[in-house]
Inverse folding.
């Protein structure tokens, strides 16, 4: 009998070991189940298959549900609050049934015996949450992670049914505490991973969108370069080819054929300039740097002038031009150059896409709006292409290669110029029935200020050119380092009776001024050894040169360049390519010599 005396103690140790193993198995099983469900939540974020648009909410609910199922006699509550908040709100409750299968009401007891009833959207003070976390056993666990900013609380309330629940023994309390601690860690990790995955997804989506936009931009750029290359090469071919013919042996400028060649070269050069101007205009408009010169425009006269410019092209194609202007349309406040540009863009397009019939310009007025409608009997535009017409570089696909010529900038520039005038452009078109493009402008834009209304700031006195008295002298000093431009101006002015001294840099200019007193100085801004803006100030600082008129002739043609030159001390400004007639007029203005242009 003595040999069995230790059996009860032995059985007790075995039972304790079995209970411990069961507890560990239960804990491991429940944590694995929780991790598996959290993994599914994160996988849904990666694959984009999340059943809701709030994966974080799914993680909170999953944790509350799993803990609630594991601790059958406890209600699990999630309270959400931001780190700076002093009050949190109940977000989710997993409440078990009581023993009589009726829903139980979960309550927590605060220090001092105060009852805290758990219901959705109930506000709970942060102080009360901290109180519950310090109780023994704890009834609240903080869910926070410094770097991710996650902030929430998990509350655990033991539900008492109508029949008294058994008192939880210490071992169960310890097991519950261990389970909740690990479950909260899994919850925090899942939330942190979820935020990282969402950030990666956003970056990935942004990258995809950017990549698509880059592809589209690159496609437009290639299309633009191809079109522009074609457009530039065509007039360049004429310029180079006919110049070669003129330079060939037997050149005689009096021959009629040679005069025709020269007209083609001049026309091709103007075409090139128009292409460059379109590109510059669009760049200046998009950079909000386009300068608008508001004037009172005689609408009928401007429209007649515009039609005169396209008359030859219409005649060459056998098309009839029609102009209709309502009698009440007289004047308009606008930039005449830009208004003419808009109308020419529409008229040239109409002529390009019309092989027979009529191209017309109709002008009407309704209340305070003027409508300029360019219409034609051409091929028309399919509906699917009309919405894309005003995109830069876009061209309507057409079987005729000649009708695909152009940079695709004309309509884009026209629409933006209309917007600058506080107006808009509309299009109506049917295939094989022609098109109607209408520019609608207010009689006087809100932003328009006529020159007589402008009070310009006076430039600093030390930079302001002194009054000039026109001279009868025919001496011109040309400061220009570009040989072709210099020779062109020198030949033209010499034909008008001027004696032109040409120098290429600052040093030669000062040397020439010691030998003669010119009537006018023509100065480029970019010189090999100096900047014209600095050079003009040096001239104005010397009394003997203060009264000499100085004209800036430069390729600086962006917004504000004219004002920069005049403020620095120049009397006049002319941009390249040089309009020889305008140059002659400016020189004559200060030398009292009439130029024939």
């Amino acid at each position: 009998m003595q040999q069995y005396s230790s059996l009860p103690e032995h059985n007790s140790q075995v039972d304790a070991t079995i209970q411990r193993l069961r507890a560990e198995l239960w804990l491991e099983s429940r944590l694995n189940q929780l991790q598996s469900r959290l993994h599914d939540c994160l996988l849904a974020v990666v694959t984009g298959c999340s059943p809701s648009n709030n994966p974080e909410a799914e993680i909170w609910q999953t944790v509350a549900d799993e803990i609630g199922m594991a601790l059958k006699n406890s209600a699990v509550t999630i309270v959400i609050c931001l780190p700076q908040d002093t009050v949190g709100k109940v977000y989710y409750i997993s409440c078990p049934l009581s023993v009589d299968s009726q829903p139980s009401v979960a309550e927590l007891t605060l220090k001092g015996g105060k009852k805290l009833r758990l219901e959705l959207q109930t506000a709970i003070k942060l102080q009360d949450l901290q109180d519950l976390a310090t109780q023994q056993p704890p009834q609240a666990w903080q869910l926070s992670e410094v770097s991710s900013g996650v902030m929430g609380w998990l509350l655990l309330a033991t539900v008492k049914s109508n029949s008294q629940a058994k008192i939880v023994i210490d071992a169960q309390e310890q097991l519950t505490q261990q389970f909740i601690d690990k479950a909260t860690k899994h919850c925090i990790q899942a939330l942190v991973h979820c935020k990282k995955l969402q950030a990666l997804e956003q970056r990935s989506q942004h990258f995809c969108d950017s990549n698509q936009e880059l592809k589209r931009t690159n496609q437009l750029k290639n299309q633009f370069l191809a079109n522009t290359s074609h457009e530039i090469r065509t007039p360049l071919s004429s310029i180079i080819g006919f110049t070669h013919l003129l330079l060939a042996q037997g050149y005689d400028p009096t021959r009629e054929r040679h005069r025709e060649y020269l007209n083609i070269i001049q026309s091709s050069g103007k075409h090139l300039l128009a292409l460059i101007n379109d590109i510059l205009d669009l760049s200046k408009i998009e950079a909000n740097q386009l300068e608008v010169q508001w004037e009172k425009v005689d609408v009928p006269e401007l429209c007649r002038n515009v039609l005169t410019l396209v008359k030859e092209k219409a005649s060459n194609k056998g098309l009839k031009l029609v102009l209709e202007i309502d009698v009440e349309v007289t004047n308009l406040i606008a930039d005449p150059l830009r208004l003419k540009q808009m109308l020419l863009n529409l008229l040239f397009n109409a002529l390009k896409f019309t092989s027979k019939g009529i191209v017309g310009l109709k002008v009407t007025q309704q209340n305070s709006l003027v409508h300029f409608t360019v219409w034609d009997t051409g091929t028309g535009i399919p509906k699917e292409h009309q919405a894309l017409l005003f995109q830069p570089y876009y061209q309507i696909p057409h079987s005729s290669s000649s009708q695909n010529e152009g940079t695709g900038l004309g309509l884009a520039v026209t629409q933006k110029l209309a917007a600058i005038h506080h107006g808009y452009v509309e299009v109506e078109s049917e295939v094989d029935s022609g098109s109607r493009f209408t520019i609608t402008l207010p009689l006087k834009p809100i932003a328009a200020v006529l020159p007589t209304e402008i009070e310009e700031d006076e430039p600093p006195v030390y930079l302001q050119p002194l009054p000039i008295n026109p001279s009868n002298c025919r001496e011109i000093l040309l400061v220009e380092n570009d040989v072709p431009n210099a020779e062109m101006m020198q030949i033209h002015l010499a034909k008008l009776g001027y004696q032109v001294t040409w120098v290429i840099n600052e040093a030669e200019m000062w040397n020439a001024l010691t030998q003669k007193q010119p009537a006018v100085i023509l100065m480029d801004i970019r010189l090999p050894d100096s900047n014209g803006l600095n050079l003009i100030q040096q001239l104005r600082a010397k009394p003997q040169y203060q009264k000499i008129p100085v004209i800036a002739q430069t390729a600086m043609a962006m917004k504000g360049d004219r004002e920069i030159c005049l403020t620095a001390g120049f009397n006049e400004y002319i941009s390249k390519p040089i309009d020889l007639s305008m140059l002659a007029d400016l020189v004559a203005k200060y030398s009292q010599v009439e130029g024939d242009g």
Observations:
- The CA atoms of residues 224 and 393 lie 6 Å apart.
